[in-house]
Amino acid sequence: MSISREDIEKVAVLARIKVDDEQVSALEKDLGNILDLVDQLSAADTDSVEPMAHPLDAVQRLRPDEVTETNQREAFQAIAPATEDGLYLVPKVIE
Amino acid sequence: MQWDIVIGLEIHVQLATKTKIFSGSSTAYGAEPNTQANAVDLAMPGTLPVPNENAFRYAVMFGLAVNAEIGRRSMFERKNYFYPDLPKGYQTTQLEQPIVGPGYVDVDLANGETKRVRIHHAHLEEDAGKSLHEDYHGMSGIDLNRAGTPLIEVVTEPDMNSAEEAVAFAKKLHSLVTSLGICDGDMSQGSMRFDVNISLKPKGSDQLGTRTETKNLNSFRFMEQAIAHEVERQMDILEDGGRIIQETRLYNGDRDESRSMRTKEEANDYRYFPCPDLLPVVIDDDFIEDARSRLPELPDARKARFKEQYGLNDYDAGLLSGDAKLAAFFEEAAAHGKDAKLAANWIQGEFSARLKAEDKSVAESPITGAQLGDLVVRIADNTVSSAGAKKVFEALWTGENDNVDAIIDAKGLKQVSDTGALEAMVDEVLAGMPDQVAQYQNEEDPKKRKKMLGGFMGPLMKASKGQGNPKLFNEILVKKLGG
What we know:
The structure holds 2 protein chains of 2 kinds.
Chain A: H1 5-14, H2 21-42, H3 73-78, E1 83-84, E2 87-91
Antiparallel strand pairs in A: 1-2
Chain B: E1 3-14, H1 53-65, E2 73-74, E3 77-80, E4 90-93, E5 103-108, E6 114-126, E7 130-136, E8 139-143, E9 150-156, H2 163-180, E10 192-202, E11 212-217, H3 220-239, E12 247-252, E13 257-263, E14 273-274, E15 281-282, H4 285-293, H5 299-310, H6 314-322, H7 324-337, H8 340-357, H9 369-380, H10 386-398, H11 404-410, H12 419-431, H13 434-442, H14 446-463, H15 470-480
Parallel strand pairs in B: 11-12
Antiparallel strand pairs in B: 1-9, 1-10, 2-15, 3-4, 3-14, 5-6, 6-9, 7-8, 10-11, 12-13
Family (chain A): Belongs to the GatC family.
EC number (chain A): 6.3.5.-
Keywords (chain A): ATP-binding, Ligase, Nucleotide-binding, Protein biosynthesis, Transferase
């Protein structure tokens, strides 16, 4: 199975990764190889196998609904690039 | 052409847990920005989510209340998209195996019919933070206190066929989750948010039309307006021979207009996959039975009880039983006031009007059910007239005084119901109005006579300084004037 340049460009946009033309050609080949491997796997008969939700054969532990976290805003905001009035500042987002 | 309207809803319900769905951060509303956003909520490297037991308990209680199958084994997926108020770059949600499976809700409509709306499923997920787009030197401010607040997203089947039905269902759902105590129901603070899917099809056709989704409606009124608006927009397009584009729209309630947010072709590709940080959650019989034992009286049962216990009619019982807080207020007033019907009238009249005028919820009411009940007692035993009672209500509301009897005394609102004293006043007033008395006695038409009685009431109320019992005055007048 092959993957088109358009697919690669779209996935790069979704993942917010900058990919130039040269890299697209290389990715076309590499991702194509990976998808070929997936095709091989898909050929195996898995009709009687239940899809795996998690590699560990265990169930999730739940936590009691009690506040255990304290306010550590100062510590977290010390490593943020920009803050003001207790807010994290980010480049303007407009819908 | 005649069209059928087809509506399905997706409702985000904020769960009233103390902490977030995957961390022990508080969810209390109104805290200083980012003081309740900690390592897990901020997606710091090396953190792991641990689900909140109560979020599951509340979701299961909801499932039981809507007659749904409970997901014995439920899983979390990641829904990937980039937005600054979503620190992880994905929302942890449920796709393949939600906690609540198919169920239904029966909704009483205004025309007396009952409509069954099927629930497709409901799943647990986390809320995002808030973006503030006021100008911070050309940047946006992000408050992540809300990030990680547990939500259930309830998805209905497209079973509603008008704005009225959709709103009636939405109100019923609001009533259910507030009665269950799993959501505070405060829509102005975003505790319940509605997305509406709408399509039209030629009347009687079994082929569904292309739908649009109008997102993030946070009041019943906007929801009703947004549906009316969208139905009209689609109808105009279809009748002009156009076609509907599947898209997401935003409705601006203040301007009654909508605009396209994104079309399906450019819709986000969320690349869902199972969340490797979370194991499957197994819900056993004990957990379900424990949740069942916590179910309080639900709105339908409460409505039936209000009819039975207080003798309310269907309409009054429906109105007073829907909202859990209003229902509790009514029961307190009825217990103190002894006259449930009168208490019901005052709650639906003066009390509701006042709440609405000041945009307050029942919880924010300055008066208690007990105080209203005390007032009802004084109306019922004729201590105050209804005009006087309104003055007492006003004084209670403004906090001038919190005791009904003290207000009645202080404002001199006590009605005179001593028949002897009232008769003396009537004699005196009639003696001063011989012409009107003669005119009344010469009138043959009973209707006109009745009307003429009113002419004596003004002077009587004046003579009694407004404190004479109008009903007794009326009886005495009729007797004295010779019927």
